Amino acid sequence: MPERNICSESGCKAYCCHDDIIRFEELAHEQLVEYWPGAKRTLSFVITELLKRKGVYFKKSGDGFKVKIQGRCPNIDEGFNCKLQENRPEPCLDFGVGQDNCTEVRLAHFLPPYREWAYYQRKSSKND
Predict the structure, then answer these.
(1) How confident is the model at residue 118 (pLDDT cuts 50, 70, 90)?
(2) Sign, CA torsion 88/56/6/103
(3) Residue 114 half-sphere exposure, CB side, CA atoms within 13 Å?
(4) Rounded to two decimals, what is the model's pTM?
(5) CB half-sphere exposure, 58, CA atoms < 13 A
(6) Gap between the terminal Cα atoms of the chain
(7) Pairing label, strands 55-61, 64-72
(8) Dist CA 95 CA 51 (whole Å)
(9) Tens-place pLDDT, residues 49-103
(10) Where are the beta strands (DSSP E) in 44-128?
(11) Cα separation of 79 and 43, whole Å?
(12) DSSP assigned state of 47
């Protein structure tokens, strides 16, 4: 049985995994290609014709890379679950459900903060 997806239950469609730039410290090129096999190298994330297309783009940054996800991350399936859930890279692991960064993304997409949603879900289930 698949693991419960509390994000999609709350109306979220993995918005935190859309149109974002993520910095990966100490990430080897081999790991990057393992996470995103179709990723394309770029010298700049300035909006160009190339970056208007959905996909994953990266550029070298210090000991790691900056990764630009244009559109939905290709690792998000149709049910808004992460295909890499068990082996997600560190920055993805650091993004916690209900934390400040999650709340910012949810509010930007007109969803209530997760903590607020979770509170009302618990309250309504007690009244049933």
Answers:
(1) low
(2) positive
(3) 21
(4) 0.73
(5) 24
(6) 26
(7) antiparallel
(8) 24
(9) 655 778 899 988 888 888 988 888 999 988 888 888 778 887 887 777 888 888 8
(10) 55-61, 64-72
(11) 33
(12) -
